[in-house]
Every structure is written in C-alpha cells, then in structure tokens.
Amino acid sequence: MAEARVAVSEPKLAAGQMQEGRDTLQDAVRAWRKSLVRRFFATRNSIYNGLWPTHIYNLMVTTGLVTLLLFWHPTWAGGFTSRLWHLAEVLNIGDSIPYTIRVPLVAIAFGLIFFILLLYLRRYALRALLSYKGWMYQPPRTQSWTTLAWGLLVKIVSGYKPSTYSCQAALPRMPVPPLRRTLDQLIDSLTPLYGQDSGQVRDFKRQAAEFEKSIGYKLQRVLQLKSWWAPNYVTDWWEKYVYLMSRSPLPINSNYYILDHSYFKPTSNPVARAGYIVHHLLRVKRMLDREQIEPLLIRSTIPVCMSQYERAFSTTRVPGEDIDELVHYPSSKSKHIIVLSSGHYYKVDVYDSDGAVLSARVLEDLFQWIVDDSKQHEISQSESRLAALTALERTKWAKIRRQHFLESEASANKDFLATLESAINVVSFCSDPVSDDFSERGKMGLHGNGNNIWFDKNANLIFYPSGRFAVHCEHSWADAPVFAHLIEFVYTAEAANPDKIYDSVGRCLPDPAAQKPIRQPERLVWRCSESLANEIDDAYQFSLKNNADLDLVVRDFNEYGKGVIKCFKVSPDAYVQMVLHLAYYRMHGKFALTYESSMTRLFLCGRTETVRSLTQSACDFVLAMCAKECDSGLRIRLLRRAADEHQTSYRNAMAGLGCDRHLFALYVIGRGLGYESEFLKSTLTLPWILSTSQQPQQQLADTPSCDLPEFRDCVSPGGGFGPVADQGYGVSYMLAGDFRIFFHVSSKRSAADTDSTRFMDHIYQALRDVKALFDGHSTAA
C-alpha cells in the first residue's frame, strides 16, 4: 500500500536543467511581474470587449475633430459650435476656466456622450441585424440583393478585429418558437416512423391537442418570460438536467474522442509527440487566455457564440450524489498538467520562471524521465487502476470520492485529488499496443484500457506506443466542435512543418532560447486502504465489461467525397443522412427515429438542437431505392426532394426553430410548477435508434486545404461517441474534403439486432448505389 506522502525523486537529467523554485526575492519579483501581465491582458480585454463594436479610437478622433472646430471657428459649423458651448453651460464649464483648457473639456464631454451613444447604437443595431436568419436559406452564389445589402450592413456595423469574446454582447438571444409550430413539427417527425393512420400517431395528436389547450400556453408564457432575461432560455437547463444530473457512467455514454492525423505520422516516438502536442496546445491556451483567437465567422461575416471556450482548459466535472458540478480553475491557480504513466501520477509545472510555456524539447525530456521513473516504483494492481473509479456510475463514484478522498484520515488523498482536478489537462502514456487501425485507435480513445483515462477531466491526451495519439473529452462543458477547433491549431502546425518540429530520429528539435523548468516533476502518492482497493478493483472490472460491450468500427470511404456529391446538386450532409436511412432500412427492414446534431451558436450561449432527419420524403426515397421496378430518374427526384427538406430542417434548427429543445424546456418548467405531462414525458423519452452527427472540418480560416495532394493524408478522421440507445447506433461522419468520408459507427454487442461492421458495410453499399443513380444521367435533370 502506498504511504501518505508525496514522493519526489531526482530526475535523471543533465546538471543544471532544473531550477529550484525557492522563495527568493527574485522569485517574488517574477511572480509579481507575471501577475501584472495577467492583469494587463484581463483588463485590456475587458475594456476592449466592453467597447466593441466601437473602439477607443472613435473617442479620440471625435474629441480631436471637435477641438479643431472649436479653435478654428469655421462659418459652416457655427450652429454646431454654438450648441457645444451651450453644452458647456449645461455641464458648468464656465468662463472662469481658461479658454485653452475649456475647449478640450467641451470636446471631451461631447466626445464621451457621442461615443456612448455610438457604442449602444452600433451594438443594438448589430444585434438586430444578426437576428435576421434569411441568409441561411439562400446559397452564397444566389443571394438576393436584400441579403447582400444586409451582409454589407453587418460588416459596416461590426467592429474591427474582434477578440475572442468581443461579439458576445452583440449576439441575439434565442427566440422561443411558437407552440403550435413545435407541436406540428413533432407530429410530422413521428408520422413516417409509425404511419399516417397508426394508433400511435392518433394518440400523439390527441395528447398534443390536450396539452396545448390545458397547460401548454401557460408553460409557453413562462418560458417566454425567461427568454427575456436569461442569456439563453434552455442552455443552463440542458447542461444541468441532461449532463450533470445524468447518473450514467461517462465513458461511452457521454464523453467522446478525437483522433490525430489519419495516415500522416510525424514521429514514432510517443514521448517526443507528447512534448510537441502539449507545448503547442498550451500556446493555444495562452492565446485563448489573452483572447487572441478570433471568433468563428460564418461566411466571413456572421459571428457565432464563443462562450463554451471559457472552460476549455483547467475544468473538471466533480461527481455528486444527486448532481455533478463543473469546476473551472483560473489560470493563476492552474499552471500544471498531470501525467499518467504505468499507474503513477505526476504533477508537471509547464511554465518557466518568466511565465513562458516550456519548450517542446524540455517537455519531451520531462516526459521521458517520467516514463522511466514510473517503471522503477512498485505499485499494487489496485493502485495502478485508480482512474477506473471515474468510469463508475456517478452516484457511486461520488460516494467513494467523499469517503476515501475528502473525508479520509489520509490528508494526502485530498491533496492528491485537488492537484489532479485543478490541472490544465491530463497526459496519459498508454502501454498497451495499439495498431494504426482506425477502429482500434478509436476504442482506446473512447474508453481506454480501463485505468488510463481520468474521465472527469475536460481533456485527456492519450499517447500510444506507436506515436499516435487521441484526445478524450468530457462532454458537459462544451460540444465537440469547440475542442476540435483548438486541437486543429496543433494538427495544422504539425502537418505543415514537421521538419521544423522533429529531427531525423523523431525527437523534438531543441530551442536555444528555451528556459529551464522551475521545479522537477512530482510523483503523487496516496494512501490506498483495503476497502478502497476493493472499490477500485470492482470499478476496473465494471469498466472492462462496458468496454468489451462496445462495438466500434471506423473506416475511410475514399471512393468519392463531397466534391462528387455537390455535382449531384445535393447537400452533402443531407446526402449522407439519406444514405444512413437507406443502409438502416436494408439491414433491419424498418425505419428508425433519427437524431442529427445541429448547432445554435448563432445565438448567445447556444449549444445544440436536434434535426429529426427521418421525414416522409426520406422514407419515399428509401422505399424507391428498395423497389425492384423504379427508374433512376424518379429515385434522383425523390432524393433531391428529401435532401431539400432535410436541409430546410437543418437551417430551421440553426435558426432556433427546432422542436426538441423547446419541448425539453417546457417539460422542465412543467415539473418546476408541479405539472405532470405524459405527452411531454412520452415524446422526450422515445429512443434515438440512430444518433448521428456531422463533424466540423477545417474550422481555421487559414488552414491549407486537405484536398491538396501533400495534405490528403494529414486530415484527421475526426472522432466519435457511443450509441444513445442500447438497441441503436452512434454514427459520426466527416466529409474530409472532396475525396473521402470518414465514418465512426458504434453499437453495443449485447444488443440483439445491432452489428457495427454489418451496418458499416451497408453504408458503403448504399453510398455506391446512390452514386450509381447519377452515372449516365445528367446532374441537371
């Protein structure tokens, strides 16, 4: 059993490579200087964001012009200057003040008033302009003059070079959709699943009518009141009740993974790869802390909400017996990472004495020492499996955490947990052999080996012995595109300049200007009682059982991509959705309630909305594809009609006109007011047999195109997640440029009717069959 102490061993590094962090005057001066730098950036960003979309230059220019007019006295501005002197009288700037001082004071007073009016005029004008969503329904090349004029106004009113969070104050709030529209949309989505004349649909229609007449409008009015004062009428409830109150284990059920480059691998040395990845990701974190990452813009004009980025690092989901809590640590209290190697946990400070990020080569050396050192310390099997506790059902993990870590007589356990949870992120060196097969890489990224992922942390960087790596992300703090955007900075830099990062033997190139680490890594040791060891062993077996039940298949479809699909005059996303419906129907002989995730970040604090992609038009297309006597022309027309309907539904969801988040918010209000609605409960608990998501690709504006021959193998296959329903599939896909599509299909082996490999085969065949429709046919038909 481990002793209640922190063991610190001397690293086997060259003499003078470490700096001891002694409490000297020099250290105090450095700490004071770093504090000033942090406060400077925080203050500057607060002022900049508070003034956006105006700029302090507007005040300076206005004041300067007014001062010039008052000294110059041009005849054409006589009326204006007389009003300014009247303003001086109102502000009690009298004749007793010398003229040379009185003029600047009047100019400054007018400039301030004008600046404040301009600030709020531009901000509210921009918010009103961004409330218009008609642009989404017009392709960029066929936009109306009205939409073009609107876009020009947005650019004129918008500020110059916004920082990461500058646009937040100008984003509109998400509107509450009309109740009747939401109910009609719900019934329309269920009709193709059950049939127009089925008893289920008649029951849903009756329940919907009763709900609308009884408590529906009362709940709607309460929800509208909330939408007027809350940043977003549903996001806080979505985070609380869907994520944090869920008692299911995080791996497979909630968290997700992101893979590194598909085929390109810059080095086979996992320690060197970790050194660079961690170094560059910390540089991205610094950019985020200083708000130097520009907000994402759609069509280079429309900003999206960036609020989720605030918790991208140094965040932990703390388990609770009834509800979890998201805890975010400020940068001043989170300057270290945790490295997990051979069951041992190490604390590594990642900044030097000047507050700069340690170089990639220095980090590589630290990681190599940790890997070597971890093999020299004996550890029990139970101790090496500690991370398995985070894979438990949340209430059980919360009780174990309280009993053995917070209330334990061993104070080291509490200190250990505090150090781990306040880390920027976790770096894990996987000792299990993992091949370059996408599916094998994905499985290790999604659930690990049972003891090498701390599932509560915002992100775990998992490095495989081959030099590959994956990111495992906790889901409640943000949606997948957020961390995918941040990690894209790293992927792009690594793919663009590998020769400037790694030497000929795969090690990180040294940086002559790099400073030494402040202190040596700390090996964290905690007390493992017999009862805690039993809990850990049980958790490990529970984790292995769940991992073995996951059936994950990841493949690269490289016969064609969205370049060909666009030639068919079909939305690539809608095309893939129709393919999924066709594949599922061919395999199972029935249709499935289908969920596709859409973002609502065009609104303040928006997260996601559901696109119900199974429509009657989609069913008609699938049935036509399965009919023996049906010509290709009719099938193509049905495909395009279904794709157009799907695209409209997707745009409606982005515009805040989906039905699922609205129904969910009504249900929460009803429960809060003491109402029980069987209609809401039954519709919200229908299982999503097909849970799907298209992954964003190339969110950075200046990323080299992955269609260039030299970068085609560098694109990431994206990531995936587990099935939402036990009897269903989780499908994520990435349209990676014009030439390939990556698919991630997950299901549970314990389910009687699912098989990820067979379903993937059906997807491939459906892709070939749908493309064959257009072979020999004019795409303009």
From TrEMBL:
GO terms for biological process: carnitine metabolic process; fatty acid metabolic process. It is found in: Membrane. Gene3D superfamilies: Chloramphenicol acetyltransferase-like domain (3.30.559.10), Choline/Carnitine o-acyltransferase, domain 2 (3.30.559.70). Pfam families: Carn_acyltransf. GO terms for cellular component: membrane; mitochondrion. It is a multi-pass membrane protein. The keyword Ribonucleoprotein does not apply. The keyword Transmembrane helix applies. Keywords: Acyltransferase, Fatty acid metabolism, Lipid metabolism, Membrane, Transferase, Transmembrane, Transmembrane helix. GO terms for molecular function: carnitine O-palmitoyltransferase activity. Belongs to the carnitine/choline acetyltransferase family. This is Carn_acyltransf domain-containing protein. The lineage of its organism: Eukaryota, Metazoa, Spiralia, Lophotrochozoa, Platyhelminthes.
